[in-house]
Amino acid sequence: MTTVTVPASTVDKNLDTACASVVNEIGRTDSKSSWLLAFNGAVLAGLASIADKNLPTATKVFGALAVLALGAAAVLLLLVVRPRLRGDDKASFPYWARLDEDEIRACMDGDTRAARIRVLSTLAVRKFTHLRRAVDLSLGALVLLALAAGLAL
Q1: Which DSSP state fits 2?
Q2: How far apart are the C-alpha atoms of 71 and 76, rounded to whole Å?
Q3: N or C: which end of the chain has fewer CB within 10 A?
Q4: Are 108 and 91 in contact (CB under 8 A)?
Q5: 8 A C-beta contact, residue 33 and residue 134
Q6: How do residues 18-36 score in pLDDT, each as one tens digit?
Q7: What does each C-alpha distance from 119 to 35, 53, 109 come to in angstroms?
Q8: pLDDT tens, residue by residue, 80-97
Q9: pTM of the model
Q10: CA-CA distances (angstroms) from residue 100 to 39, 41, 104, 109?
Q11: Cβ atoms of 47 and 67 closer than 8 Å
């Protein structure tokens, strides 16, 4: 097996690019989650405005299931935008916040970009997983609302 050695300058560039890429992906999840939270909130507000109407039982059942799905989606979206403040990874600001200046300097003695990429990537995957599930629940709620509307006619 042949091993290819990559020049240090290429490794530095790739580490910097990877850090920036993961940070960008985390920002995308937060932005998408905020939009979806607003959408789900608007749908829930609309549903609340008709909650006291005399509707067929099947319509109420599908509507209630839609509300549960939207509520579960909202919880997942809140988990996406909830700050992560664990400081056990030694590669993030919550850890550094517990250190004094000398300890911070000692931490900066080595290259921590690979550790930061690992920590941020884990965080990004968790956020995207919650976002994906929230989208699936929101879509399911829309199907339930379409069924409820069809039964109300």
Answers
A1: -
A2: 9
A3: N
A4: no
A5: yes
A6: 999 999 999 999 999 999 9
A7: 25, 49, 19
A8: 999 888 777 777 888 889
A9: 0.83
A10: 44, 43, 6, 15
A11: yes
